[in-house]
Amino acid sequence: MHWKKLDEMKKEIKYSSIEIDHALRKDITYTIGKSDGNITSFMELFWQEQKKLLRSTNSGVRYHPMIIRYCLSLATKSPACYEELRQTGILRLPSQRTLKDYKNAICPKAGFQNEVIEELKDLTNSLCFYSMK
């Protein structure tokens, strides 16, 4: 029952979806560029990165670390929704494979992990402006 409904939904999406042409992409880029100043710093960063990515080619794309973190969060919550957003072409998002590489940078295990503790110590030491006695 569930699979049948899912197949029907996929067919409807495929039937109803449209490809974005150059003119629509240009309109989206223009709209993104016309913010009225009341957006958060992350929103500003996200749209600036999207504008940059829309102008670039598909090969050799570098994503900002905050975009990677945001995409990891989205993909973890709903991989199917993330993939739908990515494949529409409206937003330029990293592939699931790229996210997997970032997600598995440190292999998770049960208990305390010395390499994670050391990494956190290094990060926090670089953030300290003065040493505590």
What is the radius of gyration computed over CA atoms, rounded to a whole number of angstroms?
20 Å
Helical content (DSSP H or I, runs of 4+)? 55-70%
Shape: extended
Which structural class best describes the helix and strand composition?
Answer: mainly alpha
Given as residue ranges, the uncertain stretches (5+ residues, pLDDT < 50) are none
Query: Distance N terminus to C terminus?
Result: 65 Å
Main beta-sheet strand count, sense and barrel state = none
Number of alpha- plus pi-helical segments: 7
Q: How much of the residues is beta strand, in percent?
A: under 5%
| Number of beta strands | 0
* Average predicted confidence as pLDDT: 77
- Element pattern in H and E: HHHHHHH
Kindly describe this structure.
The mean pLDDT is 77. The longest helix is centred in the N-terminal third of the chain and has 15 residues. The protein has a domain of 79 residues. The chain has seven helices and no strands. The protein is extended, with a radius of gyration of 20 Å. By secondary structure, it is mostly helical.
SSE layout and pairings?
Blueprint: H1 2-16, H2 22-33, H3 41-55, H4 65-77, H5 79-88, H6 96-103, H7 114-127
Helix pairs in contact: 2-3, 4-5, 4-6
Keywords for this structure?
133 residues, single chain, mainly alpha, 7 helices
